Amino acid sequence: MAKAAKILLFIFFLFNIVIVELEADTVYLKNGRSLEGLIDKEDDERVVLDLGFGMVTFRRQEIKDIYRSSPDEVKKIYKEWEGEKELEKERWVKIEKAREEARRKKEFEPKEVEFFQDAGHIVVDAWLNRRVKAALLLDTGASILLLSSRIAEELGIDIYESEKEFIEVQLADGTKVDAKHIVLDSVSVEGVEAKEIEAVVLKDETDMDMRDGLLGMSFLNKFNFQIDTVKKKLILRKLEK
Length: 241
Prior knowledge:
Layout: H1 2-22, E1 25-29, E2 34-42, E3 46-50, E4 55-59, E5 63-67, H2 71-108, E6 111-114, E7 116-118, E8 121-128, E9 132-138, E10 145-147, H3 149-154, E11 166-170, E12 176-189, E13 192-202, E14 213-215, H4 217-220, E15 223-228, E16 233-238
Parallel strand pairs: 9-14, 10-13
Antiparallel strand pairs: 1-2, 1-5, 2-3, 3-4, 6-16, 7-8, 8-9, 8-12, 10-14, 11-12, 12-13, 15-16
């Protein structure tokens, strides 16, 4: 029994040493509350308590008493805080990494875009530069995105600003027309977006049945795409760089 009592006394002694070593500065307030931390600064008017994750300032007139840690205790507590901060930093790195992986997975997963057909043409609604909506005919034979002059006007593009900027474009049927080369900041189809898309604005499209334009390969080649005419879905999967 005496031996067991000695062992228990020894354990109790070690336990108390651990508690003492971990004890921080404690500010006791006149309202009965108290707060533990390490005193960072103090003067005749205020005491600043470092909590390890932030600072709290008390006025001297609020304070009833202060327990102050020994220099060895302060060093140990600061060391523990540094370890905790490092663990917290590692935890947030893992969280951010998981979020980035989830974002990339979502970004590159296939997206299904609904389309409708009109006179045998596939038509999709697109947002140009995130502000102008256009009904575009899907045309895999067009190497570039084509726009009507009306849509260009809505985008604030003056195609007659300089006649020298017109280029000759050959359409799928062999027709050659004048057009102005532009670069759109973004083209989005039901939230599936591609940036810096080359396009041309046709000078005169009065004899062409192309609605607001043609959605050509300068947009489509940013994706692996499939066209499902049964379900009327355009399936787009962004290419990974």
